[in-house]
Amino acid sequence: MKKRTVIAIIVLIFAGIIGVWNLYAMLYPQHVIDVNGKRLHLGQVYSQHLLSTVVITGDDETLLTVTAPITTVVKQVTAKLQNEVKEGNQSLPDGAKMQLATAYFNTDITLHLSTVVTYNTQHYASISMPLEAVTVNYTVNDELQFNDIIELVQRYQNKTQQIFNNDYNFIN
Q1: How confident is the model at residue 35 (pLDDT cuts 50, 70, 90)?
Q2: What is the three-class DSSP state of 70?
Q3: Predicted pLDDT of residue 98
Q4: 83 with 31: CB under 8 angstroms?
Q5: C-alpha 40 chain-centroid distance
Q6: φ and ψ at residue 108, rounded to 5 degrees
Q7: How far apart are the C-alpha atoms of 157 and 70, rounded to whole Å?
Q8: Residue 120: beta bridge partners?
Q9: Residue 43: in which H helix or E strand, if any?
Q10: What is the pLDDT of residue 16?
Q11: Alpha carbon distance 125, 66 (integer Å)
Q12: What angle do CA 143, 68, 89 make, to 5 degrees?
């Protein structure tokens, strides 16, 4: 009889420890990220922000740069490209005006898209982690139109947002 009582008490103690651990994990989540090959324990995450950068270079110079929250990066790129078209049209006669759908850079270009997530957490006041980066080269013969660039940025934004939501969104 004593043996059964001791076993029952041990089982209850282990069940209690497991229950307390699950409660602790629920109240104090231990979110972990990898930054430059190092595992960082964030603890509780208070805020998180995604910042995307779009850089278009050609002929060894920067043609366009946009850095904005991921939710507005497409709108910002569109506005900058529309401004490029507007500036280009100032010197053209009425019959030769460009539109966003027909304008393109008349040089080989490199399109670089990157996103960084910054967390404010229990263990770090501010920690940034590269989330996604893509670099694509186009030749002048590709005639990559401004609308195509906007579409590429939109697809990048959707893909990156999905990666973040699936694996790195620690605030629900």
Answers
A1: confident
A2: coil
A3: 86
A4: no
A5: 19
A6: -65, 135
A7: 6
A8: 47
A9: strand 38-43
A10: 63
A11: 26
A12: 40
> Tokens for 10?
């041990």
Q: How confident is the model over 94-135, as pLDDT tens digits?
A: 878 888 888 888 899 999 999 999 999 988 999 999 999 999
In sequence order, what are the beta bridge partners of 24?
none
pLDDT digits (tens, 9 = 90+) for 36-82: 888 888 988 999 999 999 999 998 999 999 999 999 999 999 999 99
27 pLDDT higher than 60 = no
| H or E element that contains 1 | none
As given in the structure block, the two tokens for residue 13 are 């103690």
User: Which residues, including other chains, have CB under 8 Å from residue 1's CB and lie 6 or more apart?
Assistant: none
Q: How many residues are present in the chain? A: 172
CA dihedral (74, 62, 126, 38) positive or negative: positive
Query: Counting beta carbons within 10 angstroms of the beta carbon of residue 105, is it exposed (0 to 12), middle (13 to 18) or buried (19 or more)?
Result: buried
Report helix, strand or coil for 127.
strand
Backbone angles phi, psi at 117, to 5 degrees: -105, 130
